[in-house]
Amino acid sequence: MKYLMVIITFLFFNFNVCAQIERVSKTRFVIGPSLPELLHAGVTYRIANASQLGLNVGASPDIEGVWPAISIEHRLYVGEDHKRSNQKTWFFRQGTTFYPSAETSRKFTLTLTVGKDILFNKKNGITIDAGVYYLPHSERSSLILVKSLNLLPALRFEFYFSL
Known about the structure:
Layout: H1 2-19, E1 27-35, E2 39-48, E3 51-62, E4 65-81, E5 88-98, E6 108-119, E7 124-134, E8 151-161
Antiparallel strand pairs: 1-2, 1-8, 2-3, 3-4, 4-5, 5-6, 6-7, 7-8
């Protein structure tokens, strides 16, 4: 009987402590302006504290008009955990954007950026990142950074929220 009371007390204490743990959602909905897309919206999923996948749809400006865009990304999170969320906030983002209506040689971009998640609370915040993206045959662009490599600036402001 004595052991049964100890076990019941331990289980009660354990359930009470677990009920007070606030879990951070792994799924986020995102929306914001960026380059190479002008505007985008999508969803991301945090696989682990150091890894996140994302899928976005958007529109990208061009001399000839606005193109629809579909992007996939991976974020590699580094550094220490944030004290409020217990998750890393600095990241390296690797991604690609597909333009279904572009000419064959310009259908894909490759993006590399560095950024940070800025938390408003445990469910909402903003992401800011900057870097470069590669777009074949973009020598005529007025935004080009390195003409011989077809590198253009990549910049993203992204609002995120979890349900």
